[in-house]
From TrEMBL:
It comes from Bradyrhizobium diversitatis. This is FUSC family protein. It is a multi-pass membrane protein. It is found in: Cell membrane. InterPro entries: PHBA_efflux_AaeB/fusaric-R (IPR006726). Its main location: membrane.
Amino acid sequence: MPVNATSAAAPSPLVFAGFPASSWGFALRVWLAMMLALYASFWLELESPSSAALTVAILALPTRGQGMEKAGYRLLATAIGVMASIAIAGVFSQTDGLLLAVLGIWVGLCVYVAAMLDGNRAYAAALGCITVALIAIQQIDTPLQVFPAGIARGAAIGIGVLAVALVNEVLAAPNYHPVLAGRIEALYDRVKALTHGTDLDSAAAAASLLHDIAAIRPEIASLTTESSIGTARTAAARSALVDLVSVLSLGRMLAALPVTSAPAQSANGPVQKAATLTAISRSWLRSEISHKLAQVRSSLDALHQGVRPYHAWRAPLYRSRRIAAKAGARAAISFTLIAIFFVLTGWPTTELCLSLVAVILGLGSTAPAPRTFTMVTVMAMPIACALAGILKYFVFNGVSEFQLLAIGLAPVVIGFALLISSPNPLLSSLGRLTLVFTIAVLAPTNPQNYDPEVFLVTSFFACLSSVLVLAAQTLLPPLSGDQRVRLLLREATDQLGQLDRWRVRDLAPEEAAFRDAGRVEQILSANGASALNGQIAAKAMRCFDQVESLRRCRAELERLTQGPLARLVQDARDALAQRNGAAILVAAGALSKAASQNNLSANSAIAVLVPAATIFAPSQSPTEPSQGKQP
């Protein structure tokens, strides 16, 4: 294709020390924004200037839209967390054990909400837990300081957000929509190739595509904050993804059709009728797939141009309340156990450690594997403490000039920002966590505090917090990938059994299909970067095919409920409720005959009933979908 030829001829990006020029530009922006935030905090004499620097480290994202979206959620979540801190401290400040129990419940609630969301919305839910940890828990013995501490933290975060926005604007940080459009274009090519190829009945190939399509959903929202036309681009990207899932769903139905030759005059009646129904279904499905592909192309054009698409589909998120509840309960119990440990030991000044425990639990709830995140934290924390000590006692060594602070922090901030830009998820996560913890332990102030006892106590409790969380997760392990897969597959099976009792709701079949694609994405992501399990992919796609087939049949039959075909429509619904493939095919034939006699068109309903008869065939394997090969 010409596009590939152009890409092949494009010059390779400049690389220095193993990182492209774009990564160096990103690292430079992070350092400049952090220094600007610190300078403004020192000049305004804020009580918590390190919070401004931490905000920059947390908002360190390579494109403008991603950073601004996360900044908005950070401000919102901070406000909610400050209000929660004031309420908790005001009501339970004198209750000792009850206060710790309430804090544990709050941690569990935030983790539950984070597990029900995705992207930066999940981060905002986790930040509600983190804000309470850094305000209410650290002021657990001085509840009257909760309100001033909350105001100081909010002001510092505001300074950090403004610094990031200003630096990104002045240094022309790249937009995200070209990158996102390129990824959706690639998915469009893959879906188009699959629907026109011979591997459409492959469960692994289809599940992988659904995973990649649904995985982009959390990133779409960042386009809204990118520019004045960001809302239109968000709607266009969302519509393109929903239609891609719809194309794949229709393609799977097409692949389920039996391979039949053209009906011969000498063929017996039932065979000829089945071949005629199959031909009607194949023709309609191919036409609908072509129509949907054209709509995807139209949405992509709208994304590039910054205009609203032909139809603004919603892209609902699949939420597993069982998994979220189990994650929230485990986080609450882990926090409470660690709090009881500190009560029993009677150690003084353990507020920092307990607050960092809540921080790790909160941030871990947004990671695909919380225990892996905790292990990375255990690695990052000693590195951060060592770097903070080197900076404080060997690089700065008693100086207080801001210029020296900026120069001393430059290698650390730029180095870890380069790691953050790495395509390797482990290195990127390690770089971000180490940068955040280094700034947190160093805690830049004006004038700088060089008390070695304070530094050693801070470092000790910082390292202890990650070790205690890891110990708690060893005692009460988070849900494993296999456990999440079993729960998600059980929910898919339950949905299939309950679908007949549902009314046609406000979700269109295309939107509901995207939500189910999100469940497939969660199933395939449950074990992280592990190789795709063919049996699990087959089970996930079998449930997806059956649910989407039923939903399509219900939607198409709904259009025929009024009129002379109403009785036959009810017969088709009864056959679908029984999951009887032969009865479904008989209902499709009766519907075709009656429609012809009444000069009506029922091709769309017939087109989805025929593959449903194959999908619910009694001879089907429990793990592999019996799809028909297309010629």
